[in-house]
Write a structure and sequence with these properties.
Blueprint lengths: L1 H34 L2 H22 L2 H14 L3 H32 L3 H29 L3 H26 L5 H23 L17 H19 L1 H12 L2 H38 L2 H35 L9 H16 L3 H7 L3 H54 L5 H6 L2 H4 L3
């Protein structure tokens, strides 16, 4: 029994932290939207999305593969391999960070809209410490210091930002969005330093050790890049959409875009949360049980997520204007984009756990090409449709990319694993009738 709780408590802790962080982020968006004009809100939303997306680029994907490699090295007491991995990750991350910061400075002279360029600059500056937090999250996880592996990023950082914005409003400070942008950078840096100090010698950026005898970057880069692409498509689509919108929309429209896509993403997060809880059961079922038991587990997970998404979409169809009214009268234009983004989330949920099946089968590198193609398709469709139809255009571009990704993952999973984890596979195998209660 004790071993069961040792396993399950970190899972609930992580999900609770992510739910709390999502709640803080949602309230922050409402306070921002009510306290600032849409133009300024658009600048802030763009900077927040740049921070999240660019921080992933800076990590180069090392923070994702670190969850596996560092845990394995720690379990076998291979401290030299741990150091060699962190040394490789830090060197590649430093190079990418310098390049991206330089590009954000160059954007001040290239981009015609100064506020958009400013959002890219502050967002990139905040992304540097956030990338450090992401790598330290994995380092803490490998050391089984689970609270430090998720609380700083998912809870502390968004809570501090919400506290800062709330204090500005309550104290009547001048509503200058530059204060919020500077606070984003300062909060990310403070949280990164605090986490590193609390980790002590477990900190991924601790120095003082000799250079490893072998440079393992070539070995890790391909695997890290593959996981990076999957992470972007699976977990950072909302930030990518806002970032792309920053190139084609004025800041006031970016504000509406940010509200609609983030509300939809929040609903999608809740609907797919059950997938995180069944991963352990799925691994066990694939190892010990028959194919029908695995299919039944996938079916129950998929149908739960789909029912949640359909209920949320129906709710927004009827009460969407009231939801958007929480942010202010200027956000009513987000009604149809919000519905389309929710339909995109429905498509994602219908795609089920194909991505997880590919990851469990060790096919991350093979699936990376599909992720790259989905991102390219999103950019191309957005470049074509956004100038034509504005917010609805970029929403339709997102829907098109989601449909492509879901179908491509399903085909790839069937070819590599001989099974699929989507809702249509459950229907085809009649799990609706045979799945055990």
């Amino acid at each position: 029994m004790r071993s069961f709780w040792l396993i399950i408590m970190p899972v609930f802790g992580l999900m609770g932290a992510r739910l709390a962080g999502a709640g803080f982020g949602f309230v922050s968006q409402i306070v921002l939207a009510r306290a600032f004009v849409p133009h300024d809100v658009g600048v802030a939303f763009l900077a927040i999305s740049v921070t999240s997306f660019v921080s992933l680029l800076i990590t180069c994907g090392y923070h994702t593969i670190a969850l596996t490699y560092l845990a394995r090295f720690q379990a076998f007491g291979r401290s030299q391999l741990v150091w060699a991995f962190l040394y490789a990750a830090r060197r590649d991350m430093a190079v990418v960070a310098v390049v991206l910061v330089a590009l954000s400075l160059l954007a001040l002279w290239i981009l015609p809209d100064h506020d958009t360029a400013k959002a890219f600059l502050y967002g990139t500056l905040a992304a540097v410490p956030l990338a450090a937090i992401r790598l330290n999250n994995s380092a803490a996880n490998a050391q089984k210091r689970f609270t430090l592996s998720y609380a700083p990023d998912f809870v502390v950082r968004p809570a501090l930002l919400l506290g800062f914005i709330g204090a500005m409003v309550l104290l009547g400070v001048q509503r200058n969005i530059d204060y919020v942008l500077v606070a984003m950078v300062g909060i990310a840096a403070a949280v990164a330093v605090g986490q590193a100090l609390m980790l002590g010698t477990d900190n991924a950026f601790v120095r003082g050790r000799a250079k490893p005898s072998r440079d393992l970057r070539k070995f890790y880069r391909r695997r890290a890049a593959a996981m990076l692409m999957f992470t972007i498509v699976a977990g950072a689509t909302a930030d990518l959409v806002v970032l792309i919108g920053g190139f084609f929309l004025v800041p006031s429209d970016v504000a509406v875009l940010g509200v609609s896509v983030r509300v939809a993403a929040l609903v999608g997060f809740f609907s797919s949360a059950s997938q995180q809880f069944v991963l352990r059961d799925l691994v066990s079922a694939m190892a010990r049980m028959g194919r029908s038991e695995v299919d039944a587990l996938l079916w129950r997970t998929n149908i739960t997520g789909l029912a949640t998404m359909l209920a949320a979409t129906l709710f927004v169809l009827v009460f969407g204007h009231l939801v958007l009214a929480l942010f202010g009268p200027d956000y009513a234009a987000g009604y149809w984009p919000l519905l389309i983004f929710l339909i995109s989330q429905v498509v994602r949920v219908m795609g089920g756990m194909n991505g997880q099946l590919l990851a469990l089968g060790g096919h991350q590198v093979r699936s990376a090409a599909t992720c790259v193609a989905a991102v390219v398709l999103l950019v191309v469709l957005a470049a074509v449709l956004t100038p034509l139809w504005g917010l609805v255009g970029i929403a339709l571009a997102t829907l098109g990319a989601e449909v492509f990704w879901a179908i491509s993952l399903g085909v790839l999973t069937q070819r590599l694993e001989g099974r699929r984890g989507d809702i249509f596979h459950g229907l085809a195998t009649h799990q609706i009738f045979t799945a055990p209660r």
